Amino acid sequence: MLIELHSSFAVHPGPWLRVELVEPHGLSVTDAAAKLHVTRQAMSNLLGGRAGLSAERAIRFEKAFGVRADTLMRMQAAHDLARERAREIEVERVA
């Protein structure tokens, strides 16, 4: 039996990071990018939910804010899996 996670539980980590960490610390996108040593464009894309979170970027957030990188990666994976809509992917069963 396949158990599916409702897509409402699959939160993109970028907007979550913006609301929960970046903004409460009074940082702009430019400030956050400078502190994490990434480009402003890359930070903007992530925080806007237009780009996924890489393992390297998760580690940068962990080092800067103390949030666990593995937790952020699980958020990204849950978001990616919900977005893929498994029913629409066609394959041939191998058994």
Would you spell out the secondary-structure blueprint of this structure?
Layout: H1 13-22, H2 29-36, H3 40-47, H4 55-65, H5 69-83
Helix pairs in contact: 2-3, 4-5
Describe the protein in words.
By secondary structure, this protein is an all-alpha fold. Helices cover 55% and strands 0% of the residues. The chain has five helices and no strands. The protein has helices spanning 13-22, 29-36, 40-47, 55-65, 69-83. It is elongated. The two termini are 17 Å apart.
Summarize the structure.
This protein is mostly helical and 95 residues long. It is built from five helices and no strands.
How confident overall, as mean pLDDT? 90
Question: What's the helix-strand series?
Answer: HHHHH
User: Counting H and I runs of at least 4 residues, what is the number of helices?
Assistant: 5
Oligomeric composition of the shown chains = single chain
Measured by DSSP, the beta-strand proportion falls in: under 5%
Sketch the major β-sheet.
none
Note the gap between the termini.
Answer: 17 Å
User: How much is the radius of gyration in Å?
Assistant: 16 Å
User: Which structural class is indicated by helix and strand composition?
Assistant: mainly alpha
General form: elongated
Low-confidence segments: none
* Beta strands, count: 0
Helix content: 40-55%
Structural features:
mainly alpha
